[in-house]
Amino acid sequence: MSALAALLNLSPQARKIHDHMVKAGSISAREAMADYGITSATLARRICDIEEAGFVVKREQRVHPIHKRKYTRYSIDSEAVPPAPAPEPFKVGDRVRVREGFPDEEDVGRMGKVIRVRPAHYTFPFEVLLDGDSEPWPVRATEIERVED
Hints:
It comes from Chelatococcus sambhunathii. 19% of the residues are buried. The protein has 4 helices and 8 strands. It has 2 domains: 74 residues, Winged helix-like DNA-binding domain superfamily/Winged helix DNA-binding domain (Arc Repressor Mutant, subunit A, Orthogonal Bundle); 52 residues, SH3 type barrels. The strands form 2 sheets. Strands 7-6-5-4-8 form a 5-stranded antiparallel sheet, with no helix packed on it. It has a 3-stranded antiparallel sheet with strand order 1-3-2. The chain is elongated. The mean pLDDT is 86. A hairpin with a 6-residue loop joins strand 2 and strand 3. 27% of the residues lie in helices and 26% in strands. With 149 residues, the protein is of the alpha+beta class.
């Protein structure tokens, strides 16, 4: 996926953060709050979104020179080899299995079916109804894998 195509899959907020890192070199939670009104938790989530779009983000732990508090600076690693392209997106009706990294570890290995697909910029773009459950789970593509019937 080209950098432009990846940017098109980012939410407007994630694009702002990406553009800031490209133009300024890096961003911290303090800068994100001051410049864009983005909290540290939201910044961390948008950084994950940027990584999921195929960019490699470096994290550098620093200590503030005056008040000695630790903080993280995020930057785009332009020299890193990007990860392999993402597999074909899931479609409604696909049979899937829960992968390692799913929040409820006891559900790893369970089978289910994709029942809803949202735009890629959503934090959880898929809803999966696991076999035996009555309510669907919101999931990311990294938390499920396609299986053959």
